[in-house]
Amino acid sequence: MNLALWIAAGLLSAVALAGGVTKSFVPKERLAAAPGGGWTGAASAGSVKALGVLEVLASAGLVLPGALDIAPVLVPVTAVCWVLLMVGAMITHGRRDEPGFAVLNLFYLALAAFIAWGRFGPESFTG
User: Where are the domains of the chain?
Assistant: First the structure.
């Protein structure tokens, strides 16, 4: 179970890092033209960049606290925050009639929920 949680956290961390770096450094106009990025057209550039920075922080929060044994409770806390982020992403893509992206967000939500459940419960770092 511990290995599965580490794999899930690593995968989700990579997804968060890729999305965060993209939102932080790619111009909003290019993001808006990309598949699934149309929502950025209605958002301010600052909002998109702030979301990108939060995703980069989430990437670190899903792995580093557990790996370094520094405040490891931040791993499941970050996973819960990712669940909330994915709920918002699913709503956004659902409103834009992009069901494929909403399903992808549901997959990421499920991974994050698994990490939160596992790290708060049976495979807690403090247990």
Answer: 2-120
Q: State the pTM of this model.
A: 0.94
For residue 52, which amino acid is it? G
> CA-CA-CA-CA torsion for 78, 81, 85, 90, nearest 10 degrees?
100
In the block, residue with structure tokens 């709920």 = 87
Tokens representing 102?
A: 């909403």
Copy the structure tokens of residue 113: 């929920």
Low-confidence ranges of the chain (pLDDT < 50): none
CA gap 120, 117 in Å, rounded: 5
- One-letter amino acid of 50: A
Distance CA 115, CA 102 (A): 20
HSE at residue 83, side-chain half, CA atoms within 13 A, is: 14
- Structural tokens at position 25: 């450094």
CA torsion through residues 24, 64, 91, 100, sign: positive
| Closest by Cα among 124, 120, 119 to 8 | 119
